[in-house]
Amino acid sequence: MELSLLLPLGLLVLMMVFMWRSNKKRTAQQQELRSKIQPGAEVMTQAGIYGTLVSVDEAANVATLETSPGTVLRVHSATIAHVVEPTVDVPDDASALTGDTVDEDDRVTSADDAVVEDASANDPADTELNDEGDNSNDDRPKA
Q1: SS3 state at 45
Q2: What is the model's pLDDT at position 87?
Q3: What is the mean pLDDT of the chain?
Q4: Fewer CB within 10 Å, N- or C-terminus of the chain?
Q5: Pairwise CA distance, residues 15 & 25, whole Å
Q6: Contact at 8 Å (CB) between 114 and 100?
Q7: Cα 114 to Cα 21: distance, rounded to the nearest angstrom
Q8: What are the backbone dihedrals phi and psi of residue 118, each rounded to the nearest 5 degrees, phi first?
Q9: What is the pLDDT of residues 46-75, one digit of tens each?
């Protein structure tokens, strides 16, 4: 056999393998979706309508959705695009996961360590007094 005949034949076999794998993955995803579709599940249709699944009639391929209290829609069961999973709210700094906290001064307080405050901020010896003996800056000349 010539190389010019084997190359297209090899590409054809490779293409068929990739098509078979993608079809197998798509079938597995559809079966997983069908197993999640049960009454009470939050779902989204292909049209982007969110609702709670009330009932599913497998024989007639009809799903009943409640989009808001008192509003019920009947849709074809194939129009359900995916089951909405509840999301976990993770803070941006992930301090809730480690037990650390962030205060208003952007200082991180570890669950194991105590906050050490700056002693010079509260030291009365560092403040200057004006002529009347108080530390207000109302009477000072502007520089």
Answers
A1: strand
A2: 75
A3: 77
A4: C
A5: 16
A6: no
A7: 56
A8: -70, 115
A9: 999 999 999 999 899 899 999 999 999 999
Q: Quick one: tokens of 59?
A: 């024989």
> CA–CA separation, 10 vs 52, rounded Å?
49
26's tokens? 């798509």
In single-letter form, the type of residue at position 59 comes to A
Tens of pLDDT, residues 120-133: 455 555 555 555 55
Q: Check if the beta carbon of residue 64 is closer than 8 Å to that of residue 55.
A: yes
- Report which of 90, 79, 27, 13 is spatially closest to residue 48, judged by C-alpha positions: 79
Cα dist. 86→31, 44, 72, 81 in Å?
A: 20, 13, 22, 16
Residue 95, phi then psi, degrees to nearest 5: -70, -25
pTM of the model: 0.47
